[in-house]
User: Fold this.
Amino acid sequence: MNDILSGIQAAFWLIVTLDADLIEITLRSLQVSLSALVIASVLALPFGTWLAVRRFRYRRATIATLNALMGLPPVVVGLIVYLLLSRSGPFGVLGLLFTPTAMIIAQVIIITPLIASIAHQAMRELWAEYHDLLISLNTTKRQRIMTLIWDGRRALLTAGLAGFGRAIGEVGAIMIVGGNIDHATRVLTTAIALETGKGDFELALGLGFVLIALALLVNFGIHSLSKTEREGRW
Assistant:
């Protein structure tokens, strides 16, 4: 018990003194996860909204596939990206393996189906409410999609939040494609795994507290935005 308490105290001291390694790893984690979130959102939010509006032959199969991809094992994604970016792979010439770019690619593949599926579910309900109005106004499909995205932005923020949470906590795929290289591709989750294996529980706990704090800050941020918007409507 004393060892745990001393480890927690040391971890808080690392945070309070802004330990250089802690700051570097945290900033890299934010860089990778936020970059992946932006790219995935640009792809997933319009696609999820389009699925809610558009009717086509294989729509049900597409939605079922999208929902299935939400549970895509991260290590499998990491393996596929590794094979694609390795020297013998089709994109090996780009030299992206074991770089933050490779980690971003893996995270985009992992979180895009999640964001798209949540966006589709939210926009489907909104489309049922707006359907008659938008049809009567003779709007184009692009106008319908943009209207739903704007009016459903709070629900889409929730989808983005879910994607960020999945990205920032990912370890398997980015360990494979990033290599957990010090001062290059080491992020919060991979560093926690490494330091725990080495027995350096102080740094591991410090990184863990930062990871929890980031998740809470994002949740509070989204909650504040939603609350402000609701108050503005009143």
